[in-house]
């Protein structure tokens, strides 16, 4: 703790002692906190799951994967970035991807045709691995000329496609690799971009004030969303957006707690800029950034102390106009040029990539009314957020699992927000460290900094009634609830964006169009933090079990998802899944995989072993209980739980 902070009369002496790696009086630690072993294992499991899903979902079964890969292939061959309607898919890409989009697999893959007798992948003999050709050998970059729609991905920024093209170019001889091996490289790129997500959730939770077990639970929550794992395992432009927004959330988690420094604002601007070069959903982020600085300003005003040299000499904290301008302005400078270019060239920030109105595949939604659309939109967004496992459906996650997961997440989020809103007194703050360097692999030189008051701690029981009244009157209900709401803002605003577009399309076509739960994954890190805070409030003194609970829930969700996917794609018609069918499923997947059979089997085995290891470590850590706090906390593995974890989380 900093020397300027008065010691509460009843403060726990152990909890308020400076950590051994802190510089007394600085309010900042001299080194980076260690990432707990359990968090590292969760991250390894996350990556293993992504790799496993990349085999379970054979080449071209990702959302618009052929179009995304075609953008990379076009850049490799000098196609540049044509105008909307002018980028036709390359012949070399269409030669194999057409089977999934409009050819022999289309009915089973896109329309649920297995129920009508279409064969599954398990019943189809793929081209032998040694006979698979490269894109160049399959027809090269010559555009198809059969009158089909153009590649609509031209409407998106080029960042991830340029990275993918550069990656393939630096790999010697990659142009001669089989087409599915080149696609696998791009899938691995997306996996690499999403690998830090559990670390980002952990870092955001720590900066937000969650103690060790709850921060670890936040790291585990992304594993409980099979739809996210499916999206992360294929090549698309969602991965880089999730990474950028997740890293931005780590920064803003400190901002809402009073970190108004310009360096922090610069990091926020950097990640906002990367998001702007990823996808149009980044337009929700300026509102989130501004809201974070308003909340942080109110927090800093509450926590100001006349002897704190970080505060203005006048004794009042100025409205953080400059930091907010730096954050938003830098992001616009980095990525805004792309959208200005679109507006100047095509009179739209994001033009129609097809440059025409395409025929619609989606079914009619009747009777034609707002309530018909609303019911379809709400239930479909929820369903596809958790388990958008097919194109479109089936396969699909169990409705019971979807409802249970949705009720749990909404309930815990509401718990976190209500707890913050009802609090009327200063509360205990977690003993926090600077944001760990390992929390974001994309920012090696400390992408974020800890809040200036991060090392401060106070005990709620030491606060007098008068202080409680003053604090409650000063903040107000909305302000107190605003910190967790800021972290939820990307999900909420993206939901509104999707809804606005879907309603507009419904009014035009009377169909449910562009209703994809994956569009909400940009806010997954913030959602994980708030859910973990609510879970801590619900568990109370048993909050050390939070990681085990989340991991067990994730295991159930992933198990049900893999059961649905493998039963539909990787078992013959009329065959039901039983455990004895696992070798048949793995064998079928391995036949289609781009790498030798042993690699596929090894990925499955490693994932299973990691599940066992992560669960065992989480249970062992929880059973150690508060008695092991001092030693574990020194190693970055805090197992101590505050008597009021909700207040610690939302201080």
Question: What tags apply to this protein structure?
Answer:
651 residues; mainly alpha; 23 helices; 55% helix; 0% strand; globular
Give the C-alpha Rg.
25 Å
Q: In sequence order, what are the helices and strands, one letter per element?
A: HHHHHHHHHHHHHHHHHHHHHHH
How much strand content do the residues show?
under 5%
Question: What level of helicity do the residues show?
Answer: 55-70%
The count of strands amounts to: 0
Number of domains: 1
Q: Biggest β-sheet: count, sense, barrel?
A: none
Distance, first to last CA: 15 Å
**Count of helical segments?**
23
**Broad shape:** globular
Q: Can you describe this structure in just a few lines?
A:
The chain has 651 residues and is an all-alpha fold.
SSE arrangement:
Blueprint: H1 37-56, H2 65-76, H3 91-101, H4 106-111, H5 159-170, H6 179-194, H7 197-208, H8 212-220, H9 226-232, H10 238-255, H11 262-276, H12 285-303, H13 321-346, H14 370-387, H15 399-422, H16 465-475, H17 477-509, H18 524-539, H19 546-569, H20 582-592, H21 597-624, H22 629-634, H23 645-649
